[in-house]
Amino acid sequence: MKNKIFSFIVCLLLFIGVYNVLGETKDFDYNYVRVDTIEVIDQKQLTDCGYGCPFFKNIWIAQGFTPTLESLTKVELKLFKAGNPTNTLTVSVRNSLTGSDLTSITLEGVNIPPYSVWVEFDFDDIGVVPGVEYFIIIRTPGGSFFDYYCCLFDINNPYDGGETWGSLNAGGTWSLIEEPDYPDPDGCFKTYGLDESPTDPEINGPLSGKIGNSYTYTIYSTDPEYHDIYYFVDWGDSTNTGWMGPYNSGEEISFDHSWENQGSYIIKAKSKDIYDAESQWGNLEISMPKEKSQFTILYQFFLFLQQLLNLL
Predict the structure, then answer these.
(1) Which fold has domain 2-195?
(2) pLDDT in tens, 112-126
(3) Helix H or strand E encompassing 295
(4) Dihedral, 153, 154, 158, 161 alpha carbons, nearest 10
(5) Nearest-5° angle of CA 75, CA 188, CA 76?
(6) Dihedral angle of Cα 231, 235, 241, 244, to the nearest 10 degrees
(7) pTM of the full structure
């Protein structure tokens, strides 16, 4: 009976609150944060159907997500307001819907406009377990059916790493949000985490050669989190490979290249992982001496014969 009541109220909220917008768990140290990393988007659901799921007073909403990184640094939500709510907004992260907040932040709501914008909630960084579902909890202490905030959503399960939930009693109990005209909704969100860059690539191959001949060079890099890797190779002659990949972390990749002019060249290679965390350049200096012509060889043979005749 409670689920039926919840579904009815959610349906009512979707019609009242929907706003056409234009324009196995294990213990973990939740204070753990990697060093020497960059902040990247981990999980996201960016599309919307032009409508929002409202939250106010005791009506809370939650979006599940499954991280692939080992840290969580902030969340962005696509929000707007209807009416004139002025209460604060609190966003927290939990590893269960009714559990304690692992981290949270509260922002003033007066700056939320009546049109959709991405709003950043930059809470204290925490460690998370990749592959385990977590929940973004969104609430505000006040508001009404006429003054509320909304998080935009899209339908037909655009994000398969979690679901959208609702609570009518300030997070005491939760049910999946379902409505026939808006099946399988997922809220618009981005989660961020810290990602380590791959190691600087090692380049191996011939240090010298003849112009016009093709030579094979191997590139090698590893990613600390075993993410797949892309490579960019600059051959030092105004040509490059562009970003090539992805390849497995630690996989030795071969590239062939030839040089058309005599000279010394510096081959440079850079790697990046699937989150665009880039390494520094690795390099290898080579030289391409000019190939001797037949005339040069005959001339040297003539000099040899002349020296030989002088000895007779």
Answers:
(1) Jelly Rolls (2.60.120)
(2) 999 999 999 999 999
(3) helix 294-311
(4) 20
(5) 20
(6) -10
(7) 0.73
